[in-house]
């Protein structure tokens, strides 16, 4: 199935401008064009956009995403894997940091639940 740029934007959750930007900087290969010269995105294109969105959501910098995207073809699998392994380590570290923050918030919230009204006034 193919999708016009507006449909691809809606399905991917990205704006039309972002789709064009990703194409311009090499994150996505230029999509096919229909008989009128308009971009025509495939299901495979949308899957790639979904993956890119997950990389962005996890905090991967655009420059790393570009490096990963430019590694296409046979013989580059090890480098692609290494980029993802390193990024996973960063994500796990951030998750641990956020979990520590959440633990602190939960502790504070629980402490307010056990306070008497007089203690609350001084907290």
Describe the protein's architecture and organization.
By secondary structure, the protein is mainly alpha-helical. It is 68% helix and 7% strand. The chain is built from six helices and three strands, in the order E-H-H-E-E-H-H-H-H. The protein has a three-stranded antiparallel β-sheet. The longest helix has 37 residues, at 77-113. The radius of gyration is 22 Å and the shape is elongated. The mean pLDDT is 93.
Give a topology summary.
Blueprint: E1 2-3, H1 5-12, H2 16-24, E2 32-33, E3 39-42, H3 43-57, H4 62-70, H5 77-113, H6 117-122
Antiparallel strand pairs: 1-3, 2-3
Keywords: DNA-binding
InterPro entries: DNA-bd_dom_put_sf (IPR009061), MerR-type_HTH_dom (IPR000551), MerR_fam (IPR047057)
Protein name: DNA-binding transcriptional MerR regulator
Which architecture name of the largest domain does CATH use? Orthogonal Bundle
Spatial strand sequence of the major β-sheet:
1-3-2
The tally of structural domains comes to 2
Q: Mean pLDDT score, rounded? A: 93
Globally, the shape reads elongated
Uncertain parts: none
Number of helices, counting only DSSP H or I runs of 4 residues or more: 6
Describe the biggest sheet? 3 strands, antiparallel
- Oligomer designation: single chain
Helical proportion, percent range: 55-70%
H/E element order: EHHEEHHHH
Text of the CATH class of the largest domain: Mainly Alpha
DSSP strand content: 5-15%
**Over the alpha carbons, how many angstroms does the gyration radius reach?**
22 Å
CATH fold call of the largest domain: Multidrug-efflux Transporter Regulator, Chain: A, Domain 2
Which structural category do the helix and sheet elements fall into? Answer: mainly alpha
**Strands, count:** 3
Q: Termini, distance in Å? A: 60 Å
